[in-house]
Specification:
35% strand, alpha+beta, 2 helices, single chain, 2 domains, four-stranded antiparallel β-sheet, globular
C-alpha cells in the first residue's frame, strides 16, 4: 500500500511540475512583450554569483519610493507605448482593457513592490554586457502573470554576451 501511495504521489508531483513548465513555455511564446524602465539598484551579490538587482521606475511612480508596507499584492493596468515601453494607467479593478493596455501583476515582499522578480542573473564574468541596461523586457499573459526575459539598452537592443558557436 505504501509503495502505491509513493508512486501516485510521485506521478502527481511530476504532473504538477510539467504543467508549470508548460505554462511558462506558453507564456514565453504567446505573452505580450512589455518593457519597464529600470531604476538604479545594487548590481552584485557575492553569495549568489553575478546578478543585477532590479528596481523599476514604474513601482516608484505608482507606490512611492519608500517601503510599501500597507500595499497588498495586486495588478495594475499599463499602457504599452512606442517601442513597447509600459506606463501606468490605473490600478486594475477587473474592467475591460482599452487597446494597447495590459494587466501586470505585482507582489509586495518585505515592503517592496516587485514585478515578477527583483534580480536578473547572468553568467559569471559577463556583467559588463549588462552595464547599459535601461529596461527589463517582460512577457505578459492576459491575466497579468509575467516573466522577465531580457535586459534592454536605451537603444532598445537586447543585452548579453555575444554567442560563440
Amino acid at each position: 500500500m505504501r509503495k502505491t501511495v509513493a508512486i501516485v504521489a510521485g506521478i502527481a508531483i511530476l504532473v504538477l511540475v510539467n504543467w508549470t513548465v508548460f505554462q511558462r513555455e506558453r507564456l514565453l511564446t504567446n505573452g505580450r512583450t512589455v518593457l519597464l524602465e529600470l531604476a538604479p539598484a545594487d548590481p552584485r551579490s557575492l553569495m549568489q554569483g553575478d546578478y543585477m538587482a532590479l528596481r523599476f521606475k514604474l513601482a516608484d511612480q505608482v507606490f512611492g519610493r519608500g517601503l510599501a508596507r500597507e500595499v497588498a499584492d495586486g495588478r495594475i493596468v499599463v499602457s504599452v507605448g512606442e517601442h513597447g515601453v509600459g506606463s501606468f494607467v490605473r490600478h486594475d479593478a477587473g474592467e475591460l482593457l482599452a487597446s494597447g493596455e495590459v494587466r501586470m501583476r505585482y507582489r509586495v515582499r518585505e515592503g517592496r513592490v516587485k514585478f515578477a522578480t527583483n534580480a536578473y542573473f547572468f553568467q559569471e564574468g559577463t556583467a559588463g554586457a549588462y552595464a547599459r541596461a535601461r529596461y527589463g523586457e517582460f512577457r505578459v499573459a492576459a491575466d497579468g502573470d509575467m516573466l522577465l526575459t531580457h535586459l534592454v539598452s536605451e537603444q532598445f537592443k537586447r543585452l548579453g554576451p555575444v554567442a560563440r558557436y
